[in-house]
Amino acid sequence: MSAKLMEDVMSLCKRRAFVYPGSEIYGGLANTWDYGPYGVLLKKNILDFWWKTFVQDRDDMVGIDSAILMNPRVWEASGHVANFADPLMDCKSCQERVRGDKILEEHLKTTIAGLSNAEIFAKVMDEKIPCPKCGKVNWTEPRAFNLMFKTYQGVVEDTAEQIYLRPETAQGIFVNFKNILDSTRMRLPFGVGQYGKSFRNEITPGNFIFRTREFEQMEIEYFVRPEEKEALFDQWVADYKTFFEKLGIPNDKLRLRFHEKDELSHYSSKTVDFEYEFPFGWGELMGIADRGTFDLDQHTKFSGEKLQYRDPVTNELFVPHVVEPALGLTRTFLITLLSAYEEQKLEGDEMRTVLHFAPQIAPVQVAVFPLQKQQSEEATKLYKELKPLFRAEYDESGAIGKRYRRQDEIGTPLCVTMDFQTVEDGCVTVRERDSMKQERVKVEELKTYLFSKLM
Ligand code: GAP
Asked: Which of 70, 163, 251, 333 is most buried, taking the most CB atoms under 10 A from its CB?
């Protein structure tokens, strides 16, 4: 894969209403992106597919939608105030700001987890790593830069309480653990799913929507008995493998990478990342972590509220362990696009750009065309019948070949064309996106046909 693929996908995203640069008419705001009419559909369809797979279709899962703004003590308890920081270094010559660990990793071409700020500084100076902007070796010592966005609650800023925009959706689940136990009949093992916006003041955002400061997550906290943890951890890895397969992500673009001991987050005793082969190299797609009892213990300590589980049969009281599959929605959106994108050479010099989306997540599932204006009325009638059942679009402008290309570019799996023969034989032409094969289908059988192909 090349950098060209990322450029091509970004250009398609802008041209075909998937993703626009944020606040563009004001000159933009660095690393912010807006999801356009097809983008918002694709993102929602991925989210719905995740929710259906991991919440709706399972008896051991429930959902929650907790507030983005939380009591600041939550982030003290979770360890984010103390630990959620990157080592920031400034170039004293040109004021360029970099992550000390990142320039060291790039220089040494290896991961360097577990080093203290003083050790990072010593190594950067020993290796004489120059500033990427001005080329001088004139660094400040690293200082911890907390990635949480701060804001104020209340009208008068100096008397108002400082709070944070949540950096992960997970804590909203932990702080509601007791509420969920008291108000539902969930029994171990069970999980809680939550999706929504998270915010991190990343020092090095970039690679389009791969790393942004505002992004969306789809997280699960799965509460288990300690003795069943290992097996359930492996089951989550297997379940996500299947999920990515169904999403249309090729197997050879994914790999699993276990974290080294010194690389683990402060809350985790074991983490495995699903990595994807992005055009810029292998990068994290999601993490599955063994969080043990860390979060429930910490919130018990900081809130005074006992976060425990009583076994209904044995009456045993204990703190459940947690397995956490944490996936980024906006990052999944990116890999879905990268995996689906193809520029295909057709006969002669003709080319087409096609997005091979799985039908369940395609922004438009079926497009309806009249071959000529004479069939407009009948084709519109058919479109209106299909619209409540499928994500459908109507198009009568331009030559039929052009209309097919437009739908290929947004990944529409099927196009239905009504022509002059339809009046005689009661059939329409259905054209399939990937094979470009066409077949005649009876109008009265069309809905059943579409259900079998698209749902
Ligand atoms: N609750 C655990 C947690 O948040 P994480 O590995 O920091 O773990 C989980 O984040 C996922 O969220 C990542 O694997 C990635 O998909 C997504 N993510 C994290 N930071 C992101 C960012 N700045 N931009 C886009 N996605 C991000």
From this structure: 333
Q: Is the CB of 168 under 6 A from ligand 1?
A: yes
Mean pLDDT across the chain, nearest whole number?
95
* Residue 267 Cβ < 6 Å to ligand 1: no
> How deeply is 149 buried, as exposed, middle or buried, from its count of CB atoms within 10 A (0-12, 13-18, 19+)?
middle
Residue nearest ligand 1's atom 21 by CA: 211
Q: Are 91 and 138 a contacting pair, CB within 8 Å?
A: yes
User: 4 near 26, Cβ under 8 Å?
Assistant: no
Q: Pinpoint the alpha helices (H) of 175-228.
A: 177-183
Distances (CA, A) of 453 to 26, 388, 412: 44, 17, 12
Q: How far apart are CA 333 and CA 327, in angstroms?
A: 11
Buried/exposed 326-364: b ≥16 CB within 10 Å, e otherwise: bbbbbbbbbbbbbbbbeeeeeeeeeebbbbbbbbbbbbb
Q: Pick from 175, 192, 274, 284 the residue to mutate for probing ligand 1's pocket: most ligand atoms within 8 Å of its CB.
A: 284
152 bridge partner residues: 162
| Residue 326 CB less than 6 A away from ligand 1 | yes
Percent of the chain topping pLDDT 70: 99
Pocket flag, ligand 1, residue 191 (CB < 6 Å): no
Residue 297 has pLDDT above 90, yes or no: yes
What is the structure's pLDDT at 84?
87
Angle CA 14–16–21, to nearest 5:
20
* CB 284 less than 6 A from any atom of ligand 1: yes
**Could you tell me the pLDDT band of residue 161, with boundaries at 50, 70 and 90?**
confident
**Does the beta carbon of 31 sit less than 6 angstroms from any atom of ligand 1?**
no
pTM comes to: 0.93
Render the burial of 275-295: b for 16+ CB within 10 Å, e for the rest.
Answer: bbbbbeeebebbbbbbbbbbb
Which of 203, 217, 327, 334 has most ligand 1 atoms within 8 Å of its beta carbon, as the pocket-test mutant? 217
